[in-house]
From TrEMBL:
Keywords: Bacterial flagellum, Cell projection, Cilium, Flagellum
Regions crossing the membrane: none
GO cellular component: bacterial-type flagellum basal body
Family listed: Belongs to the FliE family.
Gene Ontology terms, MF aspect: cytoskeletal motor activity; structural molecule activity
Keyword tRNA-binding part of the UniProt annotation: no
Predominant localisation class: other
Protein name per the record: Flagellar hook-basal body complex protein FliE
Length: 96
């Protein structure tokens, strides 16, 4: 009976050498994308602010929305950095 179970679970047909899901992006790629998006939002907010200062902005409301969106994106990245630094420091404190 044990031999039958071993044949079922240890057969080479059941084992695959391919990764389960190839479409999952890595953390580095995700972080790079978020950095790019945040940079674009900061540049758009800066452009909107310059247009407001020169009197060419369509509305104050739209300018404030772009500024707030850029601020929130930056704060999100700042929290990611803080968590990564905290994890790194905790790993460095561990005794080997």
């Amino acid at each position: 009976m044990i031999d039958e179970i071993n044949r079922l679970y240890l057969s080479p047909e059941m084992q695959s050498t391919e990764p389960v899901n190839k479409s999952i992006p890595s953390f580095a790629n995700w972080l790079s994308d978020k950095l790019g998006e945040t940079n674009e939002q900061l540049l758009e907010a800066d452009k909107a602010l310059r247009q407001l200062a020169s009197g060419q902005a369509p509305s104050l409301h739209q300018t404030m929305l772009s500024l707030e969106q850029a601020k929130l994106s930056f704060q999100f990245l700042e929290q990611i950095r803080n968590r990564l630094m905290s994890a790194y420091q905790e790993i460095m404190r561990e005794q080997i």
